[in-house]
Amino acid sequence: MADELRARIRSGALRPGERMPTQAQLAQEFGVERGAVRQALRVLQSERLLTNVSKGSPATVAPDPDRALTGPEAPPLPTTVALAPRIAAAFAAEHVEIDAVCLTSISLTLAIGEPLRQIHAGRLKPAKVDVRVLLPSRHIDLAFPVPVEGRGDDWVHDRWLAMRNAQGQVLRHNLLALRATHGIDVRVTFRALPFTPPVKLYLLNNTEALFAYYTLMRREAEIDHEHLEMYDAQGTRSMLFSFQQGPGLRDTTFVEQSHLWFNALWETISSELVLTS
User: Fold this and answer.
1) How does pLDDT run across 148-194, given as a tens digit for each residue?
2) What DSSP designation does 19 have?
3) CA–CA distance from 20 to each of 13, 46, 54 (Å)?
4) CA separation (Å) from 143 to 102, 150, 216, 229?
5) Each residue of 198-231: pLDDT tens digit?
6) Which of 155, 138, 277 is nearest to 221 (CA)?
């Protein structure tokens, strides 16, 4: 429920300063008890997206929800929530530079959709876009996702590889299409890492670093009508921490060191990556 209401606030379906539906109305819409409604509203209040959350009158959308999601004091949020507005803010620059280290590019591909919509709507128009992405090589033994007992290794690896390639191809296609539609100078480059990254990192315009852990979990998958237990990470739900260059020495140093780390990987042990099966 919190995810759905957050999406409505982000999209403008629920406008700044607007009163939310009553808790009774939300309970009926989502088919849950009022306790669950209050819990979801408290989550959004903790993210500073809602005000006046109480048992009495309906809550109110915060006057500046965009700042709550993208401002320097924004709390850590799941990647699916936090990344898109950060990427959109980066696309307001004349020259957009995005570097990413990840297991697959699914989160980045989804997040790029927001600035693409704004470009097509005429609200954004960068002159140049450079995107560099580091992904694990197809030739390594992945640390994850992997079967718990070693059975079905090929199936798990092939499934990950297909997702890595498909998401990368969609990301590249969507960005390169801006050349033809809007005359934007776009470059998208992928390189392969000889290891499985335990974290994901997004670097935006040399001024911001977004960092999240890949937290492993044990889950079931079905292969040929048989259940397979595997260790995997839900990257889209990873909590994303933001570090921005500015007056704070700690954040500025983290951004600078993250760029040094990324460039070192890009220029030394990474290799050419071709997004084919």
Assistant:
1) 987 778 889 999 999 999 999 999 999 999 999 999 999 999 999 99
2) B
3) 11, 16, 12
4) 13, 12, 10, 15
5) 999 999 999 999 999 999 999 988 777 778 899 9
6) 155
Output the CA torsion 195→200→203→208 (10° steps). -140
Residue 198 corresponds to which tokens in the numbers above? 């335990």
Two tokens at 13?
Answer: 């379906």
The two three-digit tokens of residue 243, written as one number: 């570090």
Angle in degrees, 0-180, between the axes of helices 79-90 and 2-11, rounded to the nearest 10: 20
Q: What is the mean pLDDT of residues 44-54?
A: 80
Omega prior to 72 cis, within 30 of 0? no
Q: What's the alpha-carbon Rg for the chain, to the nearest Å? A: 20
What are the beta bridge partners of residue 213?
199
CA distances, 255 to each of 65, 81, 229, 260 (Å): 25, 21, 37, 9
- Residue 165's contacts (CB-CB under 8 Å, 6 or more residues apart) are 275, 276, 277
Are residues 71 and 246 in contact, defined by beta-carbon separation less than 8 angstroms? no
Task: Give all domains of the chain, ordered by start, each with its CATH number.
Answer: 2-65 (1.10.10.10), 76-272 (3.30.870)
Contacts for 154-159: CB closer than 8 Å, 24+ residues apart: 155/223, 155/228, 156/221, 156/228, 156/230
pTM: 0.78
Under a CB-based contact definition with an 8 Å cutoff, are residues 117 and 111 in contact? Answer: no
Give the whole-angstrom CA distance, residue 16 versus residue 26. Answer: 18
